[in-house]
Amino acid sequence: MNRQIYYHKAGKWFSPDLFGGQLQKLVSEVKKNTKKENILFLCIGSDRSTGDSLGPLVGYKLKKTKGEEYRVFGTLTQPIHAINLSETMEMIRQYYQDSIIVAVDASVGKYEHVGYITLGRGAIRPGLGVSKNLMSVGDIFITGIVGYGGNFEPLLQNTRLSIVMELADCICAGIGCAGPTDTERDMEYGNTQKYQANW
After folding, report:
1. For 114-144, what is each residue's pLDDT tens digit?
2. Quick check: 92 and 54 in contact, CB under 8 A?
3. Are 102 and 138 in contact (CB under 8 A)?
4. For every residue of the chain, which 3-state class applies, written as one string?
5. Does the domain spanning 5-194 belong to CATH 3.40.50?
6. Fewer CB in 10 Å around end: N or C, the chain?
């Protein structure tokens, strides 16, 4: 089934606003079609691999905001990865049935898309690039394209940290811009205190 995927170049000053606006629209669509009201960010990846650390970095940054609108699973200290994903999802289904799950993960794509963030409605399958048979997760997905080509696992080990950090900063800034108002276009991406979402 075809689904619309939005692409945003990390590092562009206008990307957080555009990304945040589209994220808020997707959240509103899911709310209309389900009984879910709260927001839960499921940040997938490992802190032991540079490229795969995007999810935990985003989770770490979001957790620092202590936002009341959402819960965050997957950080640098408590990452969500292939070993504990199933257990985590079981817990989420049991205790957070009213939550819209926004899954965040690293991905590979075309050469010209490296450094882009993708956003769309639906689930993603973590680990697909390294032939791991993991469950599909999420009502909405956010991925950061950290590299290109088909040899995913070695590529993740050799990804430049600067690319991952720029993606993580832009994702968090975009979440902070999510809402009906035009908020702080010139915000400093690294200031996690501004990442409060207005759903």
Report:
1. 999 999 999 998 865 455 667 889 999 999 9
2. no
3. yes
4. CCCCEEEEECCCCCHHHHHHHHHHHHHHHHHHHCCCCEEEEEEECCCCCCHHHHHHHHHHHHHHHCCCCEEEECCCCCCECCCCHHHHHHHHHHHCCCEEEEEEEEEEECHHHCCEEEEEECCECCCHHHCCCCCCECCEEEEEEEEECCCHHHHHHCCCHHHHHHHHHHHHHHHHHCCCCCCCCCCCCCCHHHCCCCC
5. yes
6. N
Question: What is the pTM for the complete model shown?
Answer: 0.84
Residue-range domain boundaries for the chain: 5-194
What is the mean predicted confidence (pLDDT) over 8-26?
93
